[in-house]
């Protein structure tokens, strides 16, 4: 196992993401030996913390992972804290001095990761200062990790990208979509390209429709303020859903390094419909109180406007205008307060056209289906038809299922752990390229435009605990399909 030499400067070190995800991810990498003696973390944020307090916060956030208190203490001793005002040049001078001395102390070889885990409004200011105050080194690598949201539409994303590009090249910018770090999302490529049976059938000739569901049980929780500006379309569709769709639909890559290009090609081929058509094929919803009155509706959230028209649910039909997929609907849906947490991809094949069974079977021959379960269960299910036991020749569907057990989840690296390690090794496969982000925004902006052109529907239109509004079901029924 290669031990990495690196200095991670974390902007937003006091934030929720850092505590919930980043410190545990770094600790896991430490326990596995990817980080050992030659790393340091500078945490920075507005609060006036010192090193000791910072270390105690880090220890608290990794508490459930600690086997040996000495190890945990040794890990935390690599963490340093500097209070920081992102607009103050002098602070970057302090950061630079500390970086230099830590580089010497831990032999970090000039390797720098700058992790921006904070409001995107400051990304441009920070990267500009990093360059101007010469925090970028010449003897090691300089990599920038950026959290979502990357803009709120194409225009703002593009402006942000231009700002970043003044200081960092595209091949130094690691845009996070944490879904790409998930074990089962990475498994999509294995299922597709390591199995001749699927790859041979992976096209409009054999596939009837694809369904991608990212349902959440939770409501907006304390994030009403953010959500009011974002909604489900920007929060989930622009990034996670379109990324999954791209992985399902891309042409076979020639290497892992080619994956991003193949995803770009898909995202650029999404069929652009007229605004009227879009308003028919993209359904928005907002949850109201649950039927038993126990759960509040979206508008009851303290940080949400009482008359908010923001969507907490989206369902839609996407088509891809290329040779492989023309005419195949990719149905997508995502939402908050949908009664269960479920992330799943279903690929439904066209039913067999056997005259044999149409004569003897009581029912139509069912369609084969491969389902990839991402959360909470992780695994696959393949549905095939076989003969039902007995004298007659009726058919029954059998589920060939492989659901991984708890040890699978425990032994598989957590998304952030995997992504931070990828960044340290310089592997960009699971980070989004600017062209992916740009094409996704261009697609999503049209949906927003179509919605904005019409008054919002009657919100709330689904009760907390339901799988979205009736219109989402009607969308599929009108095409002869149903949500699986
Ligand atoms: C985030 C969204 O990107 O993904 C959240 O901002 C959402 O609103 C989350 O809850 C879902 O991620 P996961 O990994 O829990 O499915």
From TrEMBL:
Keywords linked to the UniProt accession: Carbohydrate metabolism, Glucose metabolism, NADP, Oxidoreductase
Enzyme Commission (EC) number: 1.1.1.49
Catalytic activity from the UniProt record: D-glucose 6-phosphate + NADP(+) = 6-phospho-D-glucono-1,5-lactone + NADPH + H(+)
Pathway the protein contributes to: Carbohydrate degradation; pentose phosphate pathway; D-ribulose 5-phosphate from D-glucose 6-phosphate (oxidative stage): step 1/3
Domain of life: Bacteria
Keyword NADP applies: yes
Domain Glucose-6-phosphate dehydrogenase C-terminal: from-to ranges: 190-483
Binding sites annotated in the UniProt record for NADP(+): 12-19, 46, 148
Annotated substrate binding sites: 178, 182, 216, 235, 336, 341
SUPFAM superfamilies linked to this entry: Glyceraldehyde-3-phosphate dehydrogenase-like, C-terminal domain (SSF55347), NAD(P)-binding Rossmann-fold domains (SSF51735)
Top-rank EC class of the record's enzyme: oxidoreductase
Active-site residues, record numbering mapped to chain: 240 (proton acceptor)
PROSITE patterns found in the cross-reference section: G6P_DEHYDROGENASE
Glucose-6-phosphate dehydrogenase NAD-binding domain boundaries: 10-187
Family: Belongs to the glucose-6-phosphate dehydrogenase family.
Function according to Swiss-Prot or TrEMBL: Catalyzes the oxidation of glucose 6-phosphate to 6-phosphogluconolactone.
Name of protein: Glucose-6-phosphate 1-dehydrogenase
Natural source organism: Granulicatella seriolae
